[in-house]
Amino acid sequence: MNILVTGGAGFIGSNFIYYMLQKHPQYRIVCIDKLTYAGNLETLRKAMENENFRFFKGDITDRKAVYGLFEEEGFDAVVNFAAESHVDRSIEEPEVFLRTNILGTQVLLDAAKKYGNIRYHQVSTDEVYGDLPLDRPDLFFTEETPIHTSSPYSASKASADLLCMAYYRTYGVPVTISRCSNNYGPYHFPEKLIPLMIINALHKKELPVYGEGLNVRDWLYVEDHCKAIDLILHGGRPGEVYNVGGHNEKTNIEVVKKIISILGRDESLIKYVTDRPGHDMRYAIDPTKITNELGWYPETTFEEGIKKTVDWYLSNKHWWESIVNGEYMNYYERMYSGR
Ligand code: NAD
Ligand code: TYD
After folding, report:
1. Is the pTM here over 0.85, yes or no?
2. CA 224 – CA 15 distance, rounded (Å)
């Protein structure tokens, strides 16, 4: 198989590339990535040594470049990770989210349609379902849960999902969608909760917890997400949505305290700061469908995964130090000073 992976210089896309190169050594993987602030070629350095891997710097909204790549490569499948992915940035500046997440998806779908109804997988998110109340632990997101978005980020991802379904129904493009819960693991950009807390705790900097820290996220180790996408790509039914999550709900404050305890820091570093506007309370996935249809289950427990992740950040300082010392500092100041 020759697979186009978009957004592969980011967190999950890069983990997926490494997963696929190892799991299917005979496959060719081509990555297109615009290398925005969240994309980092250093992340793909090892992949570049593999002759079955090619990196192409390009924007998924650039129709000419995308069509050119499809003509040159003759892809069998597309997996679309490329996106603006951070909720806080979407609140500051929504437009680029609409451009990349919606229009970029449309260009890729058009290419999949034009070059022979190529198998297309859309990497979506549980955030398209909105949130669940804290006092109803019996409720979970299923694939039938109505779309009900809160942030410009989740609205853009939901729009892309609807477009994918329209291309399946109207043009017969063999599309699948996965909606996964929050991921964590290596190469996670430092603006997101878990890497931000690890890096700040290492520097004995304040740990900014939004609101009361009681919001719940359903954390999944990134490799388990990669395994799910591989299973869907090979065995998923076109036109179907698959929820991915491992029943691992934690409040933010629990996650932050866990990181503090692994790193032997003091809880006095915690600082409760002004809440995120429109902040979703609880995400929780029911993964019954993917488990029953494709035999997926999560292999890494949170206990194991969070230790592996902290270890990774400790052993790969060169990867994140260049990020946190650059333009990221301006973002951090803008987002957190005086909050
Ligand atoms: P990320 O921000 O780490 O990486 C995104 C990548 O896309 C970057 O390499 C960036 O350079 C690239 N990109 C952005 N705009 C582009 C464009 N116009 N053209 C080409 N490349 C572009 O994001 P992530 O956390 O790895 O998320 C990947 C996908 O998974 C996203 O679609 C996201 O919505 C989805 N998702 C993420 C999570 C999570 O917990 N991180 C959970 C569920 C779903
Ligand atoms: P985040 O990693 O941004 O993922 P998402 O909003 O897509 O779930 O945030 C995870 C949770 O952590 C979310 O409830 C917001 C919260 N959070 C903080 O409390 N402090 C922070 O500095 C960040 C980045 C997030």
Report:
1. yes
2. 10
Q: Which of 33, 59, 84, 126 is catalytic?
A: 126
- Tokens for 200, please give them: 């700040």
How many angstroms does the Cα of residue 87 sit away from the middle of ligand 2? 8
Backbone angles phi, psi at 27, to 5 degrees: -80, 150
**Contact present, 221 and 284 (Cβ < 8 Å):** no
Q: What is the DSSP string of 274-332?
A: PPPTT---B--B--HHHHHHH-----S-HHHHHHHHHHHHHHTHHHHHHHHTTTHHHHH
Q: Is 311 annotated in the active site?
A: no
Mean pLDDT, contiguous 10-residue spans, the chain (339 residues)? 98 98 98 97 96 98 98 98 98 98 98 98 98 97 98 98 98 98 98 98 98 98 98 98 97 98 98 98 98 98 98 97 90 91
**What distance in Å separates the CA atoms of residue 20 and residue 27, rounded to the nearest whole number?**
8
- Which residues contact ligand 2 via a Cβ below 6 A? 87, 182, 192-193, 196, 208-210, 215, 217, 252, 276
User: Does residue 116 come out as left (phi exceeding 0), alpha (psi in the -120 to 50 range) or beta?
Assistant: left
How close is the Cα of 210 to the center of ligand 1, in Å?
23
Q: Is 127 a catalytic residue?
A: yes
Residue 175, beta-bridge partner list: 120
Which CATH architecture describes the domain 2-185+220-246+282-295?
A: 3-Layer(aba) Sandwich (3.40)
